[in-house]
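Q: What would this chain look like folded?
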Amino acid sequence: MAHGKNLRIDPDRLWDSLMEMAKIGPGIAGGNNRQTLTDEDAEGRALFQSWCEDAGLTMGLDTMGNMFATRAGQDPDLLPVYMGSHLDTQPTGGKYDGVLGVLGGLEAIRTLNDMGVKTKRPIVLTNWTNEEGTRFAPPMLASGVFSGRHTQDWAYALTDAEGKTVGEELKRIGWIGDEEVGARKMHAMFELHIEQGPILEAENKDIGVVTHGQGLRWIECTITGKESHTGSTPMHMRKNAGLGLARITELVHQIAMDNQPNAVGAIGHVDLYPNSRNIIPSRVVFTVDMRTHLLDKLNAMVDDFMAKAPELCAEIDVTFSAKVVGHFDPPAFDEACVSAVRNAAETLGYSHMNIVSGAGHDACWINDVAPTAMIMCPCVDGLSHNEAEDITKDWAQAGTDVLLHAVLDAAEIVE
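A: My prediction, written as structure tokens:
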């Protein structure tokens, strides 16, 4: 590869950009609250656009508010190489989730400009709208419209807690473009992101080479028993829906453990009725979340659960019913793009390992329409979606260096 190990980003400039963006929509505990389509989101977009223009990029904006900053290539007829992530945050989010992927991409372009590097293919830096999905569910909304997973009309009609719609708020903050969403074609797409988990730090690795995203199934379950007094109902005569929940909680954990590695399962949301201190619960409604990166394994986990859960409930004389309410098949990222990430890490001398993304990302949807890969760097204690989220400058540099070289591999340097 031309320039080889000598081509590195400026870590101080990247860090300064991250800290400057973090001033917009500050949280209450050191993080950020820059939720999608708020005034703070608009301010962050404006700052990003000004930086892109200073770097000589031309900005495009589609009808979902996705921002596309283009660095021209020698051959404008070749499909561009894309990179990027998102600038919106959780209500109590950190300074790096998503933002590193956008501003790391900007720093990669600034480095190319500094070094006078030209590429055959154009390079496009993207800020995807509403990746987080906290104000307007679901997450990865605009990349989902771009890839055809959702229709734009459906997305525009989604409402927040105050009844405001996506379409209205895009227009209000002034970031609704006229470019048809999804019309762009890509040669490849790379997304840099913090891991949002503890594996890389625990393994003392600089880079996670993301081979797959996790698929998931959300199973909404109902256990029905009989409401009765906790003090006067003999133990052997109870129909305790809460006991059924306890047994199924253990079942979910055991199924995940039986399918290691890279399989997880838990029960998060629970509604228990009548939810009184001295009444044995007659009904429990809860959601099981199962995830893994292999489709056959995921389906087998669900089948195992659906077979065993009713039996456990029947043993204690309560009834069980369930339905799948969330469905996302695991994406396998493009082998050539994944190899470009791995080769970049090796060329630069960064330690690395294969990893499966435990969270959803825009790259998971773009993978439907273009060759895609992800690069991950560690985060302290695996903490994310939290104002205490933290990374080191060295980790940020490593991830961005790898992003730069993987993108150059796809965009082809002009000698």
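The chain has a mean pLDDT of 96.
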